[in-house]
Design a protein that fits this description.
The complex is a heterodimer. Chain A is α/β, with parallel strands linked by helices. Chain A contains 9 helices and 7 strands. Chain A is 36% helix and 22% strand. Chain B is globular and about 65 Å long. The chains are: A alpha/beta, B alpha/beta. At the A-B interface, helix 4 and strand 3 of A face helix 9, strand 14 and helix 10 of B.
Chain lengths: 203, 379
């Protein structure tokens, strides 16, 4: 596995700890279905992946992961309340149009919502902006602005503000340091490279 | 980020080559959903590859409205055209005849060798014509299951089909869940849209209003050729897309004498459709066309209760494929089937291909379609 793949799978172990055996899991922005395949092996889940890209669905087919090619909002609307135990957004929220509404839909369809995201407040990002006046280019953000999708990145504090404003219960939170492997236990808004949250609604 | 994965190694391709059809005859009376009966039944079919000793390597292919049992290879050296899905079926192809025993039968109600309205009723010595019972997709599938029984096959490796074949495939998954390992439905859906029914009925009216139709009681040698040709021309438009037609024909003109009749063929597209109409008449029976299109219009997985209730019987993993330019069986109609299956907690996948060939995209060789089917059948 390449270092980039390793990084991409940073949240797998944390999510696998939170998932109960046999859960019904919907993974929005499932990519090649690697997380669902992993959870199927570790926790015998029933998982469904959703991705907009045909090639990703093709990879899911190869992994025997049920997958739906389409838009997260469209598929969420077709499910009744509580259809899944968990809806996962692993590095997906940043790409969504009107993320708040879709997260709320996720909480309608899933009893829990798991969100994994790159922390915009990570000190390297701050220093780069402060001293170089430009965005970072590294393994995590490998491409210049003109070769990437619009990304709506946010920090740990901004995410917690959203949860408080919407009165969401934070069931679990985990922070990974800049290497995306070791745990980060203090000042996550500054020191965490990656954050993972488990949310539920109050009712 | 580079998300590409190494392409699977697809073995070198071969051809099934020369093929022959067979006839399966069931002497038992066959009962239709409508209550109608046939005293006996014939299904014409072709097979490719070999049935293994365990009889668990068979794939059933279901054909579309105007298709038939001849989906791969050629019947003789003089035959120019290969079977309708030749690019998909053969040694090393996605439906790999070195691994699988492939069966394709002409549908019940058809006119290419299986019992249909044009067949002779052994009890009267005359053709059934409109005495042929009211036909449904369920009846087609039930008849196919008799052929599968005859091979001694308990469980098919897969059932696969596009368009009307896709509907049969879904019906297989519902009616015989324990008899198939997986299924692939292409360019299909849970039911016809109002628009699809409207096009079908306009085609039927073209046939019925042709004086040669004679309430279905025509001589096979001089049937309602005009009506059938017009029905086919119109249906053919619904199988294509505006983009596809534009790039194939545009406003290209036939080179011709300008002084000719006002309404002679002037544009390429007219010539193409007239040719399609005329060639269809030579191989298709008008009454079969009426019966099959009606069976498709009646097909409705939302009935009797709901789509979810109907699909709750499904147990095997399924793949549903929609095509972006298909406006006859549009992507949302394909998607709806998978949405219901996923609501029910089934193993189902929806994939959508961006192709310009309209409804007929599933009949066009495209690397992505090729790879998708290959992967699903070998996973």
């Amino acid at each position: 596995m390449s270092p980039i793949d390793k990084k991409r799978q940073a949240d797998f172990q944390v999510i696998a700890q939170w998932v109960e055996p046999g859960e019904r899991v919907l993974d929005l922005g499932c990519g090649r279905g690697v997380l669902l395949e992993y959870l199927k092996q570790k926790k015998s889940i029933y998982g469904v992946g959703v991705d907009i890209d045909f090639d990703k669905i093709l990879s899911c087919v190869k992994r025997s992961v049920p997958a739906y090619q389409g838009d997260a909002r469209t598929i969420l609307a077709t499910f009744p309340d509580g259809a899944f135990d968990r809806v996962i957004f692993s590095r997906t929220v940043e790409q969504l149009d009107d993320a708040g509404t879709i997260l709320a839909e996720g909480l309608r369809v899933g009893k829990k919502v798991t969100v994994g995201f790159i922390n915009k407040g990570f000190w390297v990002n701050r220093l780069c902006t402060l001293f170089k006046g430009r965005r970072v280019i590294n393994e995590v953000y490998p491409k210049p602005w003109y070769e990437t999708q619009p990304t709506n990145s946010f920090s740990v504090n901004e995410f917690e503000e959203y949860c408080n404003a919407r009165k969401l219960v934070i069931e679990n939170r985990a922070f990974l340091a800049g290497d995306w492997r070791s745990e980060c236990s203090v000042f996550p808004n500054l020191l965490a490279g990656y954050a993972i949250y488990d949310l539920s609604s109050i009712d | 980020m580079n998300d590409s994965e190494q392409a699977p190694i697809i073995p070198e391709e071969g051809e099934v080559g020369f093929v022959e059809y067979q006839d399966f005859v069931s002497k038992e009376p066959f009962k239709f959903v409508s209550g109608g009966k046939l005293p006996e039944l014939t299904l014409r079919y072709e097979t490719y590859g070999h049935l293994n000793a365990a009889k668990d390597n068979a794939i059933l292919i279901c054909h579309a409205l105007s298709g038939d049992h001849h989906c791969a290879g050629v019947h003789g050296i003089e035959e120019r055209k290969q079977g309708w899905w030749n690019f998909m079926v053969g040694p090393g192809k996605p439906i790999d005849t070195t691994r699988h025993f492939v069966i394709c039968s002409n549908v019940l109600g058809g006119c290419q060798g299986s019992t249909g309205p044009g067949s002779i009723n052994p009890q009267t010595g005359k053709a059934y014509k409109l005495d042929f019972p009211k036909l449904t997709v369920q009846d087609m599938v039930k008849a196919q299951s008799l052929l599968i029984d005859d091979f001694g096959i308990d469980r098919l490796h897969a059932v696969i089909g596009g368009s009307m074949g896709g509907m049969q495939t879904l019906q297989w998954a519902i009616d015989f869940p324990e008899r198939l390992g997986r299924y692939i439905a292409l360019a299909s859906g849970a039911r016809h849209t109002a628009q699809a029914i409207a096009f079908n009925d306009t085609g039927r009216q073209a046939i019925i209003s042709d004086p040669a139709w004679k309430q279905g009681d025509y001589d096979p040698e001089c049937g309602p050729d005009q009506g059938l040709a017009v029905a086919r021309m119109m249906a053919h438009i619904t199988y294509l897309s505006d983009v596809g037609m534009e790039s194939k024909f545009g406003r290209k003109r036939r080179s011709g004498d300008e002084s000719k009749e006002h309404f002679d063929v002037e544009f390429e597209v007219e010539s193409y459709l007239r040719y399609q109409g005329a060639s269809f008449v030579s191989r298709f029976d008008a009454n079969t066309y009426l019966y099959l299109t009606k069976a498709l219009d009646r097909f409705d997985l939302h009935s009797p209760e709901s789509l979810d209730a109907t699909l709750s019987a499904v147990t095997s993993p399924g793949l549903v494929i929609g095509f972006t330019s298909d406006w006859l069986y549009p992507p949302h109609g394909n998607r709806e089937v998978v949405e219901a299956l996923l609501r029910l907690g089934k193993d189902a996948t929806y994939a959508e291909l961006a192709m310009d060939f309209g409804h007929d995209s599933f009949l066009v060789r495209a690397p992505k379609l090729y790879e998708l089917i290959h992967r699903f059948l070998t996973r």
